């Protein structure tokens, strides 16, 4: 590219004057703006870039954060929103949502902290080879189910049970049936760790069911269809009541297999 053309393109960006936000998508990670540059119409699309691989940069990242706001903590797990840039352009908000000390908190990073971590955590988050595996009934019976049982016996689900029983993260629960009164239909809703709790198009909630006999998708049988339909209806209704600007046909519900933990839970996300 000609150096002059390149320099002209770079010089145009800071001249951009915003007229209107056209769209925000990819769970809030991309925004399309309409404005002008030198009185000429322009559209600017801004996306989050990938993290640099430089260890020097990454080593200094935690201490370089200009602001940090904790969203919650449970045992060794904590999750926060953070800002890397200066705060002088932040403005006073119209209400008390998403700000502190009289100014909006415009975070550009979501941080999950595990401290102190175990070797299992290190292995989980390390780069790993991926293979496609066809799980037969025999593989599930002889390998997967015993693995699930082992994890449960090791107390790996205690943090989930603490949430369900109201011992932890009480302030994060946005909806729940009365504990123990709804039987197999009892559940609660709370934000997923990966949601910033502000961007509705990035909505990500978790529904934790009270019943403990369903560990994963593999435990579901034909007899569970009415139960699943009921839970879907209740979860959808609770979500739209909590966030009135979201309609039922804007929600997607799904489950993972393999799940992250072996207690049945449902993901609720915005379709955007």
Automatic annotation (TrEMBL):
<dbReference type="GO" id="GO:0000340">
    <property type="term" value="F:RNA 7-methylguanosine cap binding"/>
</dbReference>
<dbReference type="GO" id="GO:0016787">
    <property type="term" value="F:hydrolase activity"/>
</dbReference>
<dbReference type="Pfam" id="PF11969">
    <property type="entry name" value="DcpS_C"/>
</dbReference>
<dbReference type="GO" id="GO:0000290">
    <property type="term" value="P:deadenylation-dependent decapping of nuclear-transcribed mRNA"/>
</dbReference>
<dbReference type="GO" id="GO:0000932">
    <property type="term" value="C:P-body"/>
</dbReference>
<dbReference type="GO" id="GO:0005634">
    <property type="term" value="C:nucleus"/>
</dbReference>
<feature type="active site" description="Nucleophile">
    <location>
        <position position="265"/>
    </location>
</feature>
<dbReference type="Pfam" id="PF05652">
    <property type="entry name" value="DcpS"/>
</dbReference>
<dbReference type="InterPro" id="IPR008594">
    <property type="entry name" value="DcpS/DCS2"/>
</dbReference>
<keyword id="KW-0378">Hydrolase</keyword>
<dbReference type="InterPro" id="IPR011145">
    <property type="entry name" value="Scavenger_mRNA_decap_enz_N"/>
</dbReference>
<protein>
    <submittedName>
        <fullName>mRNA decapping hydrolase</fullName>
    </submittedName>
</protein>
<comment type="similarity">
    <text>Belongs to the HIT family.</text>
</comment>
<dbReference type="InterPro" id="IPR036265">
    <property type="entry name" value="HIT-like_sf"/>
</dbReference>
């Amino acid at each position: 590219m000609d150096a002059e053309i390149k320099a002209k393109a770079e010089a145009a960006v800071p001249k951009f004057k915003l007229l209107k936000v056209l769209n925000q998508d990819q769970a809030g990670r991309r925004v399309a703006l309409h404005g002008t540059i030198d009185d000429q119409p322009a559209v600017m699309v801004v996306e989050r870039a990938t993290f640099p691989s430089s260890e020097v940069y990454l080593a200094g990242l935690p201490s370089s954060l200009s602001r940090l706001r904790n969203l919650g903590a449970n045992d060794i797990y904590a999750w926060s929103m953070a800002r890397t840039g200066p705060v002088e352009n932040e403005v006073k908000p119209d209400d008390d949502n998403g700000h502190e000390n009289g100014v909006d908190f415009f975070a550009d990073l979501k941080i999950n902290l595990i401290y102190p971590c175990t070797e299992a955590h290190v292995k989980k988050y390390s780069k790993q080879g991926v293979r496609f595996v066809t799980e037969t009934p025999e593989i599930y019976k002889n390998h997967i189910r015993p693995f699930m049982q082992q994890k449960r016996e090791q107390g790996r689900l205690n943090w989930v049970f603490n949430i369900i029983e109201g011992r932890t993260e009480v302030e994060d629960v946005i909806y729940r049936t009365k504990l123990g009164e709804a039987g197999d239909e009892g559940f609660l809703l709370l934000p997923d760790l990966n949601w910033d709790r502000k961007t509705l198009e990035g909505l990500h909630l978790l529904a934790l069911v009270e019943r403990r006999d369903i560990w994963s998708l593999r435990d579901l049988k034909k007899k569970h269809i009415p139960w699943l339909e009921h839970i879907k209806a209740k979860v959808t209704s609770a979500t739209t009541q909590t966030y009135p600007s979201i309609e039922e046909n804007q929600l997607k519900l799904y489950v993972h297999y393999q799940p992250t933990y072996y207690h049945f839970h449902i993901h609720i996300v915005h379709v955007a």
